[in-house]
Every structure is written in C-alpha cells, then in structure tokens.
Amino acid sequence: MKIDGTSTSPVGSVQATNRVKQVEKKTTVSEADKIAVSDKAQVYQALLQKTKEIPAVREARVQALTEQIERGEFKVDGQKIADKLLEACQED
Fold first, then answer.
1. Would you say residue 78 has pLDDT above 90?
2. What are phi and psi of 5, to 5 degrees?
3. Over 60: is that where the pLDDT of 1 sits?
4. What is the rounded (10 degree) CA torsion for 67, 62, 59, 85?
5. How far apart are CA 30 and CA 6, in angstroms?
6. What's the CA gap between 42 and 8, in Å, rounded?
7. What is the spatial distance between Cα 3 and Cα 18, in angstroms, rounded to a whole number?
8. pLDDT value at residue 31
9. C-alpha to C-alpha distance for 24 and 67, rounded to whole angstroms
C-alpha cells in the first residue's frame, strides 16, 4: 500500500479557517479602544511645543550685560529688586 502525502484533510482546512476568523474577531477595534484628546489638551501641547522652541538663554541680553560689567557701567537697582521680591511673595 502506498500513501499519497499530497492530499490534505478537509477537516484540517475548516479548523484553520475557523481559527483565522477567531483571531480576526479579537483584533477588531471597538469604540472603547479609541482615544480622544480634549481641546484643552491640544492647546496645552501646542503651547508646550512653542515654549521648547524659545531659547533658554537670551544671548543678546547676556552679551549686553557682560559688556556693561566690563566697562563698569552696570548698576544694580536695589529698589527694583525689592519690589520684584515683594510682588513674588504677594502672588504666593
């Protein structure tokens, strides 16, 4: 008796098809799986991105102050500093 290995069982192909359908059912996206970002969150994200684009050090201001210090022209206004400190304390 000779066994022909080229034929496949029809039962095996039906089982494989059923397994594929089960996987397809599990991978569909339901309404509960969707994400919605609020308008406020979108505005916040845009503002955050813009603040990252602003340089942390104002090079022109630093250069101007350095030159004033080197020339001996830089003056500290104690009253202005005190006013700013008091404003900060009142805000907290």
1. yes
2. -85, 0
3. no
4. -160
5. 42
6. 56
7. 28
8. 61
9. 70
Q: Is 41 helix (H, G, I), strand (E, B) or coil?
A: helix
- Please, are residues 65 and 74 in contact by the beta-carbon 8 Å criterion? yes
Find all residues with CB under 8 Å of 37, minimum gap 6, and list them: 45
Instruction: For residue 35, name the pLDDT band (cuts at 50, 70, 90).
Output: confident
3-state secondary structure of 29: coil
**The pLDDT of residue 41 is above 80:** yes
User: pTM for the complete prediction?
Assistant: 0.33
Q: How many residues does the chain have?
A: 92
> What whole-number percentage of the chain has pLDDT above 70?
64
Cα separation, 46 vs 55, whole angstroms: 17
- Structure token digits, residue 68: 């004033």
Do the beta carbons of residue 68 and residue 74 sit within 8 Å? yes
Residues with Cβ within 8 Å of 15's Cβ and at least 6 positions away in sequence, in order, are none
